[in-house]
Design brief:
81 residues, mainly alpha
Length: 81
């Protein structure tokens, strides 16, 4: 994802001015989602925070990462018990 946004000037020069803003938005959104403990799509964290909502919408982009985190978390709980 970062490479796609970073290399925007190479594959779509007309939108190259937006790549920095998009990287800042995605990064801030992921940090907000992590700090607030939001489940679901990290991209929607800013709107969920502003609107005081708790939507559980899955994110196809980060679904493999979420599955891996869920698997690691379940193993950690089993080891402690």
């Amino acid at each position: 994802m970062v490479a796609v946004l970073y290399l925007t000037s190479w594959w779509l020069p007309a939108l190259s001015v937006t790549s920095g803003a998009a990287m800042i938005f995605y990064g801030a959104s992921m940090l907000l989602a992590a700090s607030r403990g939001y489940a679901g799509c990290e991209v929607l964290a800013v709107s969920k925070w502003v609107l005081h909502r708790d939507d559980q919408i899955g994110c196809l982009l980060f679904a493999p990462v979420d599955a891996l985190a869920r698997r690691l978390r379940s193993r950690r709980v089993v080891i402690r018990a």
